[in-house]
Amino acid sequence: MIRHSAQFLPSQPVAFTRYLNTTPVPPAQRQTILANPQFGAAFTDHMVGMDWDERQGWHNARVEPYGPIAMMPSAVVFHYGQEIFEGLKAYRHADGSIWTFRPQDNAKRFQRSAHRLSLPELPVDHFLASLKQIVDVDNEWVPGAEGQSLYLRPFMFGSEAFLGVRSAREARFHVIASPAGAYFRGGNDSVSIWVSDYYRRAGKGGTGSAKCGGNYAASLLPQGQALEHGCDQTLFLDTEGNVDECGSMNIVFVMSDGTVVTPESDTILPGITRESLLQLAEDRGMKVVRRSVSLAEWREGVASGSVREVFACGTAAVVIPIRELCGIDGGEEFREQQPRGELAQSLRDELVGIQMGRDDDRHGWLYRLDVD
Ligand code: PLP
Ligand code: COI
Q1: Using CA atoms, how far apart are residues 195 and 233, in angstroms rounded to an integer?
Q2: Which of 109, 122, 234, 250 would disulfide-bridge 274, Cβ 3.0–4.6 Å?
Q3: Which molecular function GO terms apply here (predicted)?
């Protein structure tokens, strides 16, 4: 059975039952974590949960202590990887209010991912209400310093205890939250990229444009190879040698004629950060083109000067210039320095300015979380 989009179905307002954590992280320990948040290393005191089954639909919406999830060893997710997730950030503005960025787009992407992984689609208003719940109960976990945020991780998986290969008839949705600083350990200065010449992340008609755990599982071995070669991230190509994306970021090229180019295909996750940066570039009068870019065009363009700058972008990493492109070509290793341009930094500043409430949100991208 193919489930069709639920976004057109009316959804009932969702009421959350709250079970408070009786042993929250002591305030002093929380302050220590917030003084130097890593990425994805510490978690807040609570999480959101919601259950789904064919008979009741979404039900049992709750806020509960962050902690282990009890499931049968035969649950579908452990065997067939029926799992999807999202990633977005809550920002504390100077006046103390808490906002997030384009969450409706994450909610819709979550629905598309659910559709592809044959999971039930969560109504957009349930997704948004869940974000408000976690931020309300764990308000004190939202950092306020520049470059810091509370990373919100909604995820869903097939929880039915059944080993036949078909869509689970029971699923669970959760949101966990983690104070976040820079994604890369070295900070946000720049990254070096290793081209995965053999392993691919996705294929046409596959799950590349869905945000599902399996895509990331497939990227871990090549990501290990990138690290072995002294690089920060893996670049994935399609079967024709065109640039897809990195394991957790989209790629954007700035050409010498000022055109901004980005690859688009069903093997690439359509990033909300990239979409926003392209809009900001268009607002500056720059031409944006979505087309395939081969690795050969990239390397030759850098050599000839027709590629002025290349950067990567995503929620966790924000915007990060690529300083080095490395890989194997004809059995020989290459390490090519990339030109340093100014657009990545300038777009990053503008995006962060909007997200932190300093600059005019002229596209209406911000969404307030700390109100009903
Ligand atoms: N591509 C992949 C594979 C990702 O994991 C991410 C991060 O979520 C992105 C691109 C960027 O997407 P977004 O800007 O919506 O975070
Ligand atoms: C994000 O940028 O939100 C991601 O999901 C990337 C990575 C941490 C998986």
Answers
A1: 9
A2: 250
A3: L-isoleucine-2-oxoglutarate transaminase activity; L-leucine-2-oxoglutarate transaminase activity; L-valine-2-oxoglutarate transaminase activity
